[in-house]
Amino acid sequence: MKPEIETNLEIDTKMHVNKLFTLVFLKKNKSVLLGLKTRGLGKGFWNGFGGKVEKNETVMDCAKRELKEECNLEAKDLKQIGVVRYDLLHDNSSDVVHIFTCTQFEGVEKPSEEMNPIQWYKFRAIPFTQMWPDSPHWYPYMLDEKYFSARITYSDENTIKGSSIQVYNNLSNVLKIAE
Ligand SMILES: Nc1[nH]c(=O)nc2c1ncn2[C@H]1C[C@H](O)[C@@H](COP(=O)(O)OP(=O)(O)OP(=O)(O)O)O1
Predict the structure, then answer these.
(1) ipTM entry
(2) How, if at all, do strands 105-106 and 93-102 pair?
(3) Residues contacting ligand 1 via CB (< 6 Å)
(4) Beta strand pairing status for 93-102 and 79-88?
């Protein structure tokens, strides 16, 4: 399937991938569960649940672990749907975030030290003004369950210099951007 290109990035930096993260989005009745991050990277922004992939852990294991730690829920049908690669020019490094969705989960949702409060948001009412500036670029694909890869270039912590999004019909091409 031919990828859809949203914007073309002229620069193709070969920056070293510095950190590997996960992000999980639970879905129910056209709503998604988000948490307000209380500390560290992305403090003060609403986001899905996730964190750094630890040594000897798969991205899937990390996704499950962080979900449990941050909102007390156990994922039953995690689906790897996308990858977002951030090229951080100000830091001369790249971060990669593996994106998962999930519709079957068990437990009682609870805020945590890192994500508080947590709240279900209708797909049409996502609080983009209180989120990472890149969120509106790729959330529509995630909400729509499209396999996608996104490459976002930040020239400083708050400024997006360019973005490119590609949509695929399976996961294998998505993962190439994370290599
Ligand atoms: N530009 C960006 N846009 C976005 O939507 N999410 C981002 C992002 N950059 C990083 N993230 C996500 C990835 C990850 O889920 C989270 C940051 O994770 P943390 O640094 O909080 O990791 P940990 O939970 O492992 O940290 P600690 O337990 O505080 O060491 O933010």
Answers:
(1) 0.95
(2) unpaired
(3) 21, 23, 40-42, 47, 50-52, 86, 95, 97, 132, 134-135
(4) antiparallel
